[in-house]
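User: For a benchmark we're assembling, each entry needs the component sequences followed by a predicted structure for the full assembly. Here are entry 17's components. Please fill in the structure.
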Amino acid sequence: MTFIAKPRVELPNEPVNAIGLRLRDYEGVGSTLCAGCGHDSITAAIIQAFWELSLRPERVIKLSGIGCSSKTPAYFISGAHGFNSVHGRMPSVATGALAANRDLVCIGVSGDGDSLSIGFGQFGHAVRRNLNMLYIIENNGVYGLTKGQFSASADPGSKAKRGEVNQMQCIDAAETAIALGGAFAARSFSGDREQLVPLIKAGISHPGCAVLDVVSPCVTFNDHEGSTKSYAYTREHYAPAVQTDYIPRAEQITAEYEEGQTLPVTMHDGSTLLLRKVDAEYDPTDRSAVLRYLEAHRSRGEVVTGLLFINEDLPEMHEIAGTRQGALTALPFETLNPGSAALAELQRRMR
Amino acid sequence: MKRTDTSNPDFYHQVVDCQWGCPAHTDVPEYIRLIAQGRFTDAYMLNRESNVFPGILGRVCDRPCEPACRRGRMDQKPVAICRLKRVAADHRDAIEHLLPVIPERKNGKRIALIGAGCASLAVANDLMPLGYECTVFEALPVPGGLMRSNIPAFRLPVSVLNEEIDYIVDMGVDLRLNHPVESMRALLEEDFDAVFVGSGAPKGKELKLPGREEGAANIHIGITWLESVAFGHVEAIGERVLIIGVGNTAMDCCRSSLRLGARDVKVMARKPRGFFKASDWELEDAEEEQVEIVVNHSPKAFVMEDGRLVGMKFDVMEYDIENGRILEQRAVEEVFFPCDDVVLAIGQENAFPWIERDLGIEFDQWEVPVVDEVTFESTRPGVFFGGDAAFGPKNIIWAVEHGHQAAISIHRHCHERALTERLPVTMNLGSRKMGLHEWSYSNDFDPAARRIMNHVSLQRRFEELTTEVELGFTADQVATEVERCLNCDIQTVFADDLCIECDACLDICPTQCLSIVPNGKEPELVTRLKAPRLEPDQPLFVSDPLVQTARVMVKDENLCVHCGLCAERCPTAAWDMQKSLFHFPRAADHDGSVPCQQRKAG
Ligand SMILES: Cc1cc2nc3c(=O)[nH]c(=O)nc-3n(C[C@H](O)[C@H](O)[C@H](O)COP(=O)(O)OP(=O)(O)OC[C@H]3O[C@@H](n4cnc5c(N)ncnc54)[C@H](O)[C@@H]3O)c2cc1C
Ligand SMILES: Cc1ncc(C[n+]2csc(CCOP(=O)(O)OP(=O)(O)O)c2C)c(N)n1
Ligand code: SF4
Ligand code: SF4
Ligand code: SF4
Ligand SMILES: [Mg+2]
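Assistant: Structure for entry 17:
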């Protein structure tokens, strides 16, 4: 929280993107989170990624639940649509919004409490339904907004600020998403902008539910010794498995890469992801191998990051439901709502 | 890169570009804040400490601070630093009681100062409070040097000049007017402990062209002519006047001509715009008065008819210019401009016919004295030069700084201490934090444009030679202009070991001047910065390797607006906003008492 707003300073030669907007045109109102919160860093990465993708703000919808993390959509892309739902219910609202307008670029921002505690069921079904959205979980291991109680992502054995030790098992959002049959699961760290920005872009490109679990230290309640979600712990146990380069459709792949070490994935929108494997054994397309790998490294206390699993071919919600192309919102009212006579006729046919 | 040595005052001093650019190192942002608080007297005294003549300089300073001002780098005009100085001078209360106390008991040292211009007066200002007896010899009947004899009263009112000169003379200076020094030898034979030569560069340059002698009655040397105007010896000039040269003297000559009855005044420039010596604001003011500036005309001859000057011949020039440099030039045509009078304003030179050449005071091939750039001592111990007399014509603020430095040398000389062992510049940093999000300075960025000075109407301004053209800022203008200052002296001070690399400062910074990057050599490091480096002369701040990742925090000071948001957003207070207060030692700081007393005892 600051008293003055971040001032608008006209800079000499400030760069603009393909649609003539400056980075700052993708900002929102000033953050009211604690100074140093990882969530603010993720906000900055989102701003960077959307600016670089040259997305028109009015094409974007940003959704969230409740929590410090869920407050952050206010801090980016002021010109986008938005909905701040009740606790843990963001996926339901996202389902409705995307059902009505499948042309929206949808980003959901949630927390580990919002998605893995109260909203766990909603989260699971968003993945299963394969909603076409980027689903970011800003994961700090605590309920930040309610002053730091352990959340469902807290590791067993990790210590709270006042010393008590967590004894419950933790839910790993990325692993859970893969286990639930999710098509895109990634993990990153708020302090690794270079990894985070391409992952956000990849998640936007992905035609389905892209789950991005981002370790995001809570400076106020979970950045102490004994925490496994602090800046220092995350950096010490950081283990990238794959590095992702996002290459937009317009650009040719010019980088030379070694076969076997690098895996190019062509996305449906024409962009390409170059997955550079840090560990040559790792195969981000083999679901059971990925789960084995993640479990093995988790038991060693490592924070494995990168685009962990991807399957470009799973159908998303609209394909499964066979809905028409284009936004329902574009249809005339009479078509959308043919009246009570038509309803009666429909019911008659179904009797 | 190694960690930036921020304990060296030069680093933070360079961040305060205006203060770094000011020869006398006036603490600009501090006085602007004092003005913002309505503390005009304090603002005046702070100025006076450095530049001695705030009222004068607030009107006519050459203002090297303004092109340096970092506000000018944000696609904007610099803060009106000079005009704000005038605000402090115009609105201050009486300050006599704030001036240094002059000791009744003198220290027994007598100093001779030649010329009562700003250089000598600055020396006297620094030495009188230390008990020196200063005698100033001035050829003219009034003190002030070129400030009085050449800078026209419509730019610098006589009352302002008198007041600030009196502050110094009233310290008990023995001012001998109408007293030209005609022989240095004779002066040196008198019982002075040191001599300061502040006699200026009094010789206007000649233009030896055909017709110069025949037309002499209507061809005037700029600085001599301006002096005659200032002292009322010249009260009129012809209808059509040509001014040769396009420096600041030319601007004063053309504007003075208009006030003495000229109707058609042309300033004849040899070169195109961009090569003019005159300051932009002086050119603007002249053009506002309908002076025509004719470019690319090189003077060729004065034309006489029936024994009278009727005009001048010029060569029209063509230049090949690349990157602001003239590669090739040629005359393409000859043209004639009719006129009644010509004023030559093509420069000034030093002239020391009264200094005998066998006194051990060396001169170089251009008859300029050999003067040490730090101590201002000539090749004869005990004889010092300063102001225009030292290195040729400059400006008032340089002359004042020369005066400060010469005073230190004189003080050390009189107490038999090495002139070169001067005290270093020192720095003090003090936090400006008042609360979690509160600073004791106005940290918000104000996008307002530079305020425009109001002028006396064109009709009224020519009625009297002495009508001051600039009206000074209104209260509203002051209120806006002070907020334009970026408070560059409120430094971002970094405590390397506190940073947890959360990126909060990087993200909040409105000008992208912070980066956390892997360390490397400077050229390589620069490529990793968040925003391109636009001002390679502005040193970067580089931290020690940070605790968690061994990357370094880098700050490109160039575009920082000192909003303090980095410090507000930092969870560990690794950034703090601290005022840098520099102390520039003066004569009074150099203790001269001990050897002096020892000698008296012996
Ligand atoms: C037309 C004009 C306009 C200018 N405008 C500006 C301006 O707007 N802003 C600015 O900053 N600068 C300006 N300058 C420059 C500025 O006036 C000088 O740089 C400054 O006055 C130099 O100060 P000084 O003390 O060295 O010498 P001066 O001001 O020249 O004073 C020297 C004094 O010594 C006296 N003297 C000389 N020889 C002897 C002798 N033998 N015995 C006794 N006395 C002697 C002279 O009579 C004179 O009074 C201008 C200069 C000119 C010519
Ligand atoms: C229905 C309901 N139950 C409980 C709460 C109280 N509550 C507010 S935020 C929150 C937890 C948020 O945790 P998380 O999603 O991890 O967000 P963080 O603040 O850590 O970013 C809880 C339990 C609520 N607002 N609504
Ligand atoms: S903005 Fe203020 S402090 Fe900074 S250079 Fe300009 S006048 Fe000086
Ligand atoms: S004070 Fe800090 S946040 Fe503000 S411009 Fe300077 S470096 Fe950036
Ligand atoms: S806000 Fe503070 S702790 Fe965070 S990166 Fe900046 S200096 Fe380091
Ligand atoms: Mg949380």
